[in-house]
Amino acid sequence: MHNIKIHQQNDTEQLKQIIKNYPFATLVMNTKAGLEVDHLPLILNHDNSVDVLQGHIAKANSLWKTFENDQPVTVIFHGPNCYISPNYYPTKKENGRAVPTWNYVVVHVKGTIKAIHDNEWKLSLLECLTAQHETEQSEPWSMNDAPTEYIEKMLPAIVGVEIKIESMLGKWKVSQDKPEVNQQGVIEGLSNSDDTHLLQMAELVKKFSIK
């Protein structure tokens, strides 16, 4: 990933927060069959003093058959992102020298993957996943809401996935390279929208660009 110094994010807590807030990940690996790419929600956990990403795929998904345990993988998490119009820049009115760009936040995780077939592990994972993603529901659903025999029949239909994290690389491209007057213009332009993604980016520009 092209990542100049001004855009580099090395704060581990900031990186982990993006993973927690935007858990739907892109999994990339090179296998004997060629390059494989898949998409799945992952949760960040701490297991045996090591940070890991955990999730599951359908057993019908042949992906788990294409890799060996401890194979290297890359996982990509996309945070807020949006189009930035030159119209946001006050300097454009002075000399017209402005072009569009795209602001975004992304985290690349490198590690090693393994498949897990143990039903107790998979059940624990599903309980963690649902607990995390049901928190904002007025009446959060839990695994106990479904009949035990139904869940037991469903478990063999999935394969657990665990990725031991070896490194994390973050890129926060949020107008840091623009003069402050244009950074303020981006904040004002994005803040005029009701779109959640634009408002989130406005806050990121304010936090990481304005000195």
Describe the overall structure.
The chain has seven helices and eight strands. It is an alpha+beta fold and 211 residues long. The protein has one domain (5-87, 101-177): Pnp Oxidase, Chain A. A hairpin with a 2-residue loop joins strand 2 (24-31) and strand 3. It is elongated, with a radius of gyration of 21 Å.
Give short descriptive properties of this protein.
TR_PAI2-type; Split_barrel_FMN-bd; alpha+beta; elongated; Pnp Oxidase, Chain A; Transcriptional regulator; 211 residues; eight-stranded antiparallel beta sheet
Could you give the topology of this structure?
Blueprint: E1 8-9, H1 12-21, E2 24-31, E3 34-41, E4 43-47, E5 50-58, H2 63-66, E6 71-84, H3 90-95, E7 101-116, H4 119-133, H5 148-154, E8 158-173, H6 180-191, H7 196-208
Antiparallel strand pairs: 1-8, 2-3, 2-6, 4-5, 5-8, 6-7, 7-8
Helix pairs in contact: 6-7
Count of discrete domains: 1
Assigned CATH architecture: Roll
| Uncertain ranges | none
Fourth-level CATH superfamily: Electron Transport, Fmn-binding Protein, Chain A
What general outline do the C-alpha atoms trace? elongated
Average pLDDT figure: 94
Helix percent band: 25-40%
Query: How many helices does DSSP assign?
Result: 7
Strand content: 35-45%
Query: Class in CATH?
Result: Mainly Beta
First CA to last CA: what distance?
26 Å
Helix/strand order, N-terminal first: EHEEEEHEHEHHEHH
Here the CATH topology equals Pnp Oxidase, Chain A
Gyration radius over CA: 21 Å
Number of separate strands: 8
Structural class: alpha+beta
Let me know the largest β-sheet.
8 strands, antiparallel
